[in-house]
Each structure stands twice: as structure tokens, then as C-alpha cells.
Amino acid sequence: MKLAEAKAQFIQTWGSLGAQWGINRTMAQIHALLMVMPDPLSADDIMAELNISRGNTNMNVRELINWGLVDRVLIPGERKEYFTAEKDIWKVATEIARERKRRELDPILKTLNQLQDVEGDAKDKHVKAFKDSIQGINKFAHQTDKVINSFVKSEESWFYGTLIKLFK
Amino acid sequence: MKLAEAKAQFIQTWGSLGAQWGINRTMAQIHALLMVMPDPLSADDIMAELNISRGNTNMNVRELINWGLVDRVLIPGERKEYFTAEKDIWKVATEIARERKRRELDPILKTLNQLQDVEGDAKDKHVKAFKDSIQGINKFAHQTDKVINSFVKSEESWFYGTLIKLFK
DNA sequence: TCTCTCTTTCACTTTCTTTTGAAAGTTCAA
DNA sequence: TTGAACTTTCAAAAGAAAGTGAAAGAGAGA
User: Fold this and answer.
1) CA B163 to each of CA B67, B158, B166: distance values in angstroms, whole numbers, following the listed order
2) Which residues from chain A sit within 8 angstroms of residue B89, using beta carbons?
3) Of A88, A127, A167, Cβ closest to residue B150
4) Closest Cα to residue A31, out of A73, A63, A75?
5) CATH architecture group of domain A3-85
6) How close, in Å, is residue A87 to chain B by CA atoms?
7) CA torsion angle B159 B161 B167 B168 (round to 10)
8) Do B125 and A38 count as a contact with CB atoms less than 8 A apart?
9) A163 phi and psi angles, rounded to 5 deg
10) pLDDT tens digits, one per residue of B45-97
11) Separation of alpha carbons A96 and A63, rounded Å
């Protein structure tokens, strides 16, 4: 396979993968493009490579920067801004985990805690079923939270070394 | 908080959580509803509780059954079909992990393997950058695959007992 | 201050997803 | 075999999300 072709396929695959998760397709494609490029690209480069508008480029690059997946790079003597992506996939994964935890898990933990105290007779089977469900989910969510925290803080070698052996 | 109110909030929260993941809102809401109900519900019950159409109900219930998260229940003497959800959240989580792995991770592993062999001079920095990226991602994806496989097979008691202690 | 280059914003368009509801299909007791 | 009870399908409508591009903004050097 030729390099250009392989790049295009990678960008497209990474893009549809992103779409299955909450991330939008363009954002994932820009990220993929920057990951396989050895040097930083400008907004114009990205527009040209992916055939997207200036506005769209700007919006999604900004969002990637918010996620901590892309950095602005200033090239001395140039007026334009350039962008690079983190190329270490382990760091990418922990950044994403951190961000998703903050956006998704933290709010649900908050809600679940509130839902714990429902009024009503504990002998009523509706009340009991509800409380049991919420309690189970709440416990699970807290455990998940702990695992993600460790993951986010962990070193690659330690994490895989330990976790994989554990699960065998 | 009253039970009805708490249920409504839980259904709505679970629904928007699902939407952030690839799962659609209605599907997540039906799942939430069935989780907090002690007894099986019919399609009509679901329609009434969530204010959705018959077609929508049918489609999403069927999809939940495909995911292995909901079961059809036949009540003796009744013509209608009834539905229940798995109430053990651990089982729900492993079902979801299994299904998402199959739909998302397995295809990407396949693509990555193909992208490994790009033609071109290994000294060219574009070729090198590309190969390095793909190799890193590929390695990561395979490790992730192993962890998920183990997770899917593991028992809750084992998980809580061993892994959680590890993370303190 | 002016102007040139680049960045950001935002109202509008396009595209993609979800929902609806009526019609067709299925099942089964009579 | 019929028809009542229920389920499934599907084309059209509504809704949500993403993308565009022109215009406004911002900053640097003349």
C-alpha cells in the first residue's frame, strides 16, 4: 500500500471510530491527520488535506486543544499558528479517559448520590426495586471511578504489567 | 424525593448518558425504565411511561434484546409479550463491553494490521512517522483487547475482591 | 493610524438520526 | 377459516448535529 493511501484510510477509520464514541467525525479526523504528520500543520494545511471549511477547522482544532490532545505551535518568523498532536498513544488514552470521566462519570455520580434517598416504605416492592438498582449502580460507578483515577495517574509499564497479569 | 420523581430523573439521566455514548436516548431510557421496575412491562406499558410511539418502542426493545440487555418474558395465560432487564449492573457492564468490543475494537484491529505494511523508504520521515504511529496504536489496541476479554470473562466477586484492593 | 494577514464567530444550509403512525403481517382461539 | 389481539415494518416528517462561508475581530508592522 502507498503511504498516501494508507494515511487516507487511517484518517477515515479513526474518524468513524470517533463518531461511534461521542467525538465528532471531523475532530477525530483532524486528530488522526496530526498524529501521522511528522511536522506541525497550519489551519490551511488541515483545510486542504481534509476538504473542510475554515470555520469547521477552527472549531474542531479548538476543541481538540481543550481536550489536551493537540497543541498550538508557534514557528519563529511565521505569523500563522501551527498545530501538532500528541503522538504517544498511551498519553492520548489517558487524556481521553480524564476528560470523559470529568464530563460523564462525575455528573452521574452526583445524580446517583441524590437518588439514594427516596421516601417510602422499604417493604413496598417498587421502592425496594428502585433503591436496589440505584445502590448497585452507585457502587459500580464508584468502583469504576477508582479504576479510572488509577489509570489516569498510572505509568504505562506499571498499568499493563499489573493489570494484564491480573486478568491473565 | 418521591419515588415517581426519582424514577423519572433516573430515566432521564440514564438516557442522556446513553446518548453521549453511541446508544440512542430512547434505547437507554427503556433500559433504565425496565431496570427500576420490579415486574416485566409490556410494549404498551413502555409506550405509556415514556410517551413514545409503538414503532419506536418495538425497534428499541428489539435492539436491547440484541445487545443481550433485555429479555422477552411470557406470562402464562397472556397473549402479550413482556420485557425485563438484567438488574445486576455487573452483568450489564460485561454485556456492553462484549458487544462494543465486537462492534468497534475488532474491526479496528483488522484495519490496523493491514496498515502496518506501507511501502516506502524507512528513512523518509513521513513514512517513519506513519509507521511509528500505527505501530504504537496497534500495540495499544491489542493490549486493550486482552484486558477487555479478561473483563468480560471475569466474575464480579473476583473483581471486587482482588482488583479493588489493589487500587486501594 | 492604516492595512495586511490570519483567526474567530455566527446565521444559515446541509446532512444524518430518530420518531411517528398507518398499514401489513402474524398468531391463535373459536 | 375468520377475526381479534398483538407485533413488525417502512416511508415520511421532525429534530438534532455538523459544516459552511462571509463578515467581524485582532494584532503586527509600516
Assistant:
1) 27, 8, 5
2) 133, 136-137, 139-140
3) A167
4) A63
5) Orthogonal Bundle (1.10)
6) 7
7) 160
8) yes
9) -65, -45
10) 999 999 999 999 999 999 999 989 999 998 888 889 999 999 888 888 898 88
11) 12
For B152, half-sphere exposure in the C-beta direction (CA atoms, 13 angstrom radius) is 14
Q: By C-alpha distance, which of A101, A95, A94, A93 is closest to A146?
A: A101
ipTM of the complex: 0.84
* Domain map (residue ranges) of chain A: 3-85, 89-167
Using alpha carbons, select from B50, B93, B139 the residue that is nearest to residue A139.
B93
Q: Give the total residue count for chain B.
A: 168
**Could you give the CA distance from residue B33 to residue B7 in angstroms, rounded to a whole number?**
8
- Dist. CA A78–CA A74, nearest whole Å: 7
Inter-residue long-range contacts of B76-81, CB under 8 Å, 24+ positions, other chains counted: B80/B42, B80/B43, B80/B44, B81/B42, B81/B43
pLDDT (tens digit per residue) in A44-98: 999 999 999 999 999 999 999 999 999 999 888 888 999 999 989 989 889 988 9
Q: What is the 3-state secondary structure (H, E, C) of B93-134?
A: HHHHHHHHHHHHHHHHHHHHHHHCCCCCCCCCHHHHHHHHHH
Question: In B, which residues are within 8 Å of A129 by CB distance?
Answer: 36-38, 87
Scan for cell 486482552, then name that residue.
B146
Contact A148, A101 (CB under 8 A): yes
Which run of H or E residues covers position B70?
strand B70-74
| Cross-chain Cβ contact B114/A21 below 8 Å | no
- Bridge partners of residue B84, in order along the sequence: B71
Q: Are A10 and B115 in contact (CB under 8 A)?
A: yes
**pTM for the model:** 0.87
Beta-carbon contacts below 8 Å between A and B: 140
Distance C25 C1' – B45 CA (angstroms): 22
